[in-house]
Amino acid sequence: MADRPRPFDGIEELLDRLNRQLETAAQSWESQLDNRSRLDLSPTGSEMRLDLADEGDEFVVTVDVPGYESDDLELRLSGETLAISGTRERTEEVGGEDETYLRRERETKSFSRQVRLPEPVDEDAVQASVNNGILTVRLPKREPSEEAHSIDIE
């Protein structure tokens, strides 16, 4: 009877292999989340969504900003962090004081987003434009400096 095959002999080895694969997958997912959170510095729940693309010699940030004009938006670049904010004011001039609204849903709105860029950019060559409610920011990458700098040792 010792020659009879035991059906559960390979299960422990199979479970160990499956456990190692799940641990590897979990570590991969965690590193992807870490990379994503390192780029987005905004508080969670922001309504304005953005895309950050690496187009070789420049980064391109695209943000949907419906209803915002270029005067309503502010861009700031501090180091490798791009801050985008906007405020839309309610206009009171439609219809004057005699106008009675049956429904008024448009209101003052503001947003703020910050995104960390993966590499340094040339601050002087940044370009931004708004077209059909889409803000596009082009951030040329900074050329690496080939100059060698001597460092004094104290």
Strands side by side in the biggest sheet: 1-2-7-6
Q: How far apart, in Å, are the first and last alpha carbons? A: 80 Å
What structural class should be given to the helix and strand makeup?
alpha+beta
Please give the number of β-strands: 7
Beta strand % = 25-35%
Helical content band: 10-25%
What's the overall geometry?
flat
Total domain count: 2
How many individual helices? 1
CATH architecture of the largest domain: Sandwich
Order of helices and strands: HEEEEEEE
Largest sheet: 4 strands, antiparallel
Using the coordinates above, name the CATH class of the largest domain: Mainly Beta
* Average pLDDT level: 78
Summarize the structure.
The chain has 154 residues and is of the alpha+beta class. Helices cover 19% and strands 30% of the residues.
